[in-house]
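How a chain folds remains the central question behind the approach discussed here. This step matters because it turns folding into a mapping between discrete strings. The sequence in question and its structure tokens are set out directly beneath this paragraph.
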Amino acid sequence: MKKHNIIATIVVLLLAAYHSFLQVFDREECHNALANSPHPNGDITLASEFTPTLTHLMVKKGAAAGGFALCAATDKPLGPCTDTPTSGEKANVRHLGAATGTCVGRGSKAIAAQVEVYTTAAGKLTDTAVNNSYLVGTSVTACTGDGAEFEFVPCYPVKQTV
């Protein structure tokens, strides 16, 4: 009888430990799930503070709350704007580091596939880092030249020291 009580106690302790183990991971998954976000795919809607002539230019946080402006080489980018809104009009921005899948950007010159890409002037991207520019991802497809679209895998913007 004593042997059965010891075995039963061990089984209960193992089940309690297993249950506690599962609760830790369930809580972590729930806390980090993008499905709980108001922007589960990383797309956000903001008001444009300029009138872009091209889609997929990199934008930064604007001067007004809830706004965005054209990104320069040393500005911290939010991500590419997928629309061509007029100033004051709301538009979609793919938030770097939160967007699912790949993004489309505009190159400032020819860029090879599978290279790191950085911010440069006029909301475009380049394969050459300059001091205080931002790494935004890795190209998937090649860019054929200035203003051409190409696909890249985004990352959270990382400031460069060259």
In short: The first helix runs from residue 2 to 32. Strands lie at 43-48, 57-61, 67-70, 77-81, 90-94, 103-106, 116-119, 125-126, 134-139, 149-159.
